[in-house]
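Minimal example, chain plus adenosine-5'-triphosphate.
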Amino acid sequence: MTRHKTGLLGGTFNPVHRGHIELGLKIKTAFGLDRVLYILSARPPHKKRQTLPAAELRLAMLQAALQPHPGLETCELELRRQGESWTIDTLRELQAAAASGERFYFITGSEGFLKIRTWKEYRRILREVYFIVVLRRPEHRLKVERLLREEGIPFGPALLEADPPPGAFLHSYVSDYLELSATAIRRKRSHGQDVSPYVEHNVQKIMEEIKLYEEG
Ligand code: ATP
């Protein structure tokens, strides 16, 4: 059976930046994924929403950034649903629409993964999909491993067999972009600083056209 491998990369993308693009590209290659879906969190339960730009605007920036990269695609399910954007609900929709044999890999940075216990029904999510946790800081490794052990989720050599049960892959790569955050980009824009090294050109154009984040 041909197995389709789909990466899922959730975020608020406020705005999407080169760290997000690099994350998708590197993991797609390293794990031989067919595609990576960037799931835009329309109404994130854990972020301050009063200052969050409209989901449609964040989506427009995301589409502009992904457009040059075949295999990196936007997922708009959370824009179409009412209420808070919980990952478990999105996963259910994706699973219901999946072709048989499709396997999902949830991609997260380690700092995001370490907060997984705040996600609705996180135990279910951990047991139903594979995780690829990118270590954004070396000291995160022990913390991530401890969490996985406590939750009884296999990782490391346990996942080397041909058809392993759902578990987590810990992954690292070297890059200057790993430290980049959307928070830093918003702060720079509010101080009138250039952000062109950190965002795709067409994302910068959108931000400039509407003066996004210029007010601190
Ligand atoms: P903010 O600064 O507004 O909190 P952010 O830059 O961390 O935003 P998110 O949209 O919250 O971006 O991140 C989506 C996903 O991308 C998360 O799993 C996060 O860990 C990961 N990520 C964010 N920035 C980077 C980066 N520079 N390199 C690799 N992964 C990243």
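DSSP finds nine helices and six strands in the chain. Residues 11-14, 19-20, 23, 108-109, 111-112, 134, 136, 177-178, 180-183 surround adenosine-5'-triphosphate (CB under 6 Å).
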